Amino acid sequence: MAEGYLTLTAGAEATGEFVDRRSRFIAQMRHVTSEAEATAFIDEVRSRHHDARHNVPAWVLSDGRERCSDDGEPQRTAGMPTLEVLRGAGLADVCCVVTRYFGGTLLGPGGLVRAYEAATREAVSAAQRDALLVRMTAVTRVTCVIPYSAYDRVTRLVSDCGGKVKDSVFAEDVQLTCAFLAGDEERFVASMRELANGEDLCLVGQPTFTEF
What we know:
Blueprint: E1 5-8, E2 13-20, E3 23-31, H1 35-48, E4 54-60, E5 66-68, H2 79-88, E6 94-101, H3 108-129, E7 133-146, H4 151-160, E8 164-170, E9 174-181, H5 185-195, E10 202-204, E11 208-210
């Protein structure tokens, strides 16, 4: 996840459906940030489709944890194909549950893999089409306190270094909170130290994944 990842916007749900020989595969995907949230969504979908034969879950988090289950389907024909589609799309902090309503005809292992993959891809495509995907990037926040006389110069420096001013607090001095793509803050901090004749004016936070 060092280079960032895609996820669904909070609270949004994307769905996709695939039908093969009257078996319906309905993929439902939602943003989650923890195993507990993923479990809650899985339980919600199972309640929603309590009459379905299978509700196959797969989730992947930005910290690298991931899990999937075949939920009664033949081993590695359902959960893993669903998870692989999420991985392939560069998604994280998402949970996808594919509900299957059996159509009366056995599809075989290959058919099941194709169906679960296809339904999940349809949900991903729906999220793209409806602009529900956002890119999360490693961002470092830098806070500095400067005199009013340096405000214009410092805000230009933030921009020149590829950063954004996120907040300004005007009191006796000006407190700026800025955001940089992780690594880009080093040039800004060095320039600020030079501007202040060697004094450290910047408090540098730990990188976190967020929209930039």
